[in-house]
Amino acid sequence: MQNNNAKSRLEKAIKKLEGLPKKRQNSYASIIFDELDSEAKWDKLFTHTSDKQIKKMERMVRDDMKNGATSLGQFLQA
Question: Where are the domains of the chain?
Fold first, then answer.
């Protein structure tokens, strides 16, 4: 997605939100802020994750997939 396209989508979303009652605007704002905070936490976690830790997590997920303990397999197999 190009920057201009992303900006225009954001602008469209903001315009649409501005047409809603303030209570709904605040509800959507809370959802957006929660999502941004969550993404920032994940980014921080993975920034400080070593290759060794990532490989260990990968092995754990693959073992769970083999044992039917997770549905992540549908996303990891292509």
Answer: 1-47, 50-78
C-alpha torsion angle, residues 10, 12, 18, 23 (rounded to 10) = -60
Prediction pTM value = 0.56
| DSSP code for 71 | S
How do residues 11-57 score in pLDDT, each as one tens digit?
999 999 999 999 999 999 999 999 999 999 988 888 888 889 889 98
CB neighbours (10 Å) of residue 17?
Answer: 13
CA 48, CA 76: separation in Å to the nearest integer?
23
What is the separation of C-alpha 48 from the centre of its chain, rounded to a whole number of angstroms? Answer: 18
Burial-class residue 64 by CB neighbours within 10 Å (0-12, 13-18, 19+).
Answer: middle
